[in-house]
Amino acid sequence: MKINIINTSEHPLPQYETAHAAGMDLRASLTEEVILKPLQRLLVPTGLFIELPIGYEAQIRPRSGLAYKHGISIVNAPGTIDADYRGEIKVLLVNLSDTDFKIVNGDRIAQMVVAKHETVSWQTVEQLGETARGEGGYGHTGK
């Protein structure tokens, strides 16, 4: 699949780091380093603008290494870029650790997965089909 992209950053386009990776790393596009303090949220620019085909979304997800090593995540994970959005992709990071985290220009801050989605239309009914699970949820299996 080919997707139109504008890159105003000085960094290479997002790419898959391994042959079977689902996500491509996004890099911070900053003019100066920033410090993300504990429990602080920060919208970090990437310098990327994309034109997704109708029926697709770009999911912005945390990087597992940043989450594990530094407690850095995304507030609204996964964030969604809709097909009709034309603004810059920015990543809403949060520092869940108890120490400051420095972000510099070019740091890999998130990953992006492009995925197909369906558009639904609701059909109002009086009863739903039966399943073995039924209404069980929120730990109903005891595991």
TrEMBL record:
GO molecular function annotations of the record: dUTP diphosphatase activity; magnesium ion binding
Report the EC number(s), separated by commas if there are several: 3.6.1.23
Among InterPro entries, the record links this protein to:
dUTPase (IPR008181), dUTPase-like (IPR029054), dUTPase-like_sf (IPR036157), dUTPase_trimeric (IPR033704)
Q: Can you give the residue ranges of the dUTPase-like domain?
A: 11-142
Q: Name one GO biological process term.
A: dUTP catabolic process
Q: Give, as in the UniProt entry, the pathway in which the protein acts.
A: Pyrimidine metabolism; dUMP biosynthesis; dUMP from dCTP (dUTP route): step 2/2
Q: Where does substrate bind?
A: 63-65, 76, 80-82
Q: Which Gene3D superfamilies match?
A: 2.70.40.10
Function text: This enzyme is involved in nucleotide metabolism: it produces dUMP, the immediate precursor of thymidine nucleotides and it decreases the intracellular concentration of dUTP so that uracil cannot be incorporated into DNA.
Looking up HAMAP family in the UniProt record yields:
dUTPase_bact
Protein name in UniProt: Deoxyuridine 5'-triphosphate nucleotidohydrolase
